[in-house]
Amino acid sequence: MNPQPRVRVAVITGASSGIGEATTRALARDGYRVALLARRADHIEAIASEIGGGAVAVEADVTDRDSLQAVAGRVQNELGGADVLVNNAGLMLLGPFSSELRNDYRRMIETNLIGAITATEVFLDQLRDGGGDLVNVSSVAGRTARPRSAVYAATKWGMGGWSESLRQELQPDVRVTLIEPGAVATELTSHITDQATKETTEQFVKEVAIAPDEVAEVIAFALSRPRNVTLNEILSGRPRRPDEGDPHCPARREGLHPILSLSSN
User: Fold this and answer.
1) Spatial contact of 142 and 180, defined as CB atoms under 8 Å apart
2) How far is Cα 92 from Cα 184, in angstroms, rounded to an integer?
3) Rounded to two decimals, what is the model's pTM?
4) Adjacency order of strands within the sheet including 84-87
5) In this structure, what DSSP letter does residue 5 have?
6) Exposed / middle / buried, residue 125 (Cβ in 10 Å: 0-12, 13-18, 19+)
7) Is 152 in the active site?
8) Contact yes or no for 128/173 (Cβ under 8 A)
9) Does the N-terminal peptide bond of residue 181 adopt cis geometry, omega within 30 degrees of 0?
10) How far apart are the first and last CA of the chain?
């Protein structure tokens, strides 16, 4: 009698809302056991309870390596290790470049870029053991920088370069996929500290955003491909007219259409 295959395990950072929450639910529907990581324990505990099926909620901060190491140990001991890591935790603190916003810049760099790098470094051995997948959630701002998004765009351009280098280094043992959504209807805009930029960006997002579920479906699709196929880079958003929206918003693009880069291992 053949033994039952082990259920694949997905670890999602920033799982308390938005793309992270939607991805957690999508992967759970696809049969994954999911580990939800976020700072807001009450949010992820409620989501894990709704999902059931052995979902695990773990309070963690991607800027704290000790926190991530503790999570990795728990995932290994309780779930048998991670097969998928989705680096989704992030901040979008837009505003004019000035000394007044220097704390915002540091927070974005430490969360968006260093946090993803640290989480990957901590979970890398588990991913290699399982023939795993690394999914890095970036942004269209990693392709086109606009006024008032300088440091945010820098973190996303950094995510792109880092992901491409890892793709070449880690495959075929670990597949690396970069997701670059346009505007998405999440709570990211609510954290912007510059009031004028916040109002402009909230209005723009309200007009053109896609739902987090749509991004989650793209991630689930990428993970479902045969192991000899890698969807390296996926740029997605709602197609629209070149003259539509705020020209200063980082999500503005000239008629953005889905772009897919793929390779075989």
Assistant:
1) yes
2) 12
3) 0.90
4) 56-59, 33-38, 9-13, 84-87, 133-137, 175-181, 229-236, 259-264
5) P
6) middle
7) yes
8) yes
9) no
10) 32
Q: Which residue matches tokens 């399982």?
A: 130
Q: Is the dihedral of CA 123, 218, 164, 172 positive or negative?
A: positive
Find, among 11, 154, 161, the residue nearest to 92 by Cα: 154
Residue linked to tokens 């957690």: 24
How confident is the model over 13-50, as pLDDT tens digits?
999 999 999 999 999 999 999 999 999 999 999 999 99
H/E element, 177: strand 175-181
* Structural contact between residues 237 and 185, judged by C-beta atoms closer than 8 angstroms: no
**What CATH architecture does domain 9-264 belong to?**
3-Layer(aba) Sandwich (3.40)
> Of residues 105, 123, 152, 204, which has the active-site annotation?
152
- Cα–Cα dist 124/134, whole Å: 9
Which of left, alpha, beta for 170 (phi over 0: left; psi -120 to 50: alpha)?
alpha
- Are residues 116 and 159 in contact, defined by beta-carbon separation less than 8 angstroms? yes
Give the pLDDT of residue 259: 53
**Could you tell me which residues come within 8 angstroms of residue 19 by beta carbon, excluding any fewer than 6 positions away?**
88, 137, 181, 184, 186, 212, 215, 216
Task: Give the pairing type, strands 175-181 and 229-236.
Answer: parallel
Pairing of strands 133-137, 175-181: parallel
- What is the C-alpha separation between 24 and 44, in angstroms, rounded? 10
Q: For residue 254, what pLDDT is reported? A: 35
Strand partners, 263: 230
Q: Which residue in this structure is represented by tokens 């709602």?
A: 238
Condensed to tens digits (0 to 9), the pLDDT of residues 221-233 reads 999 999 999 999 9
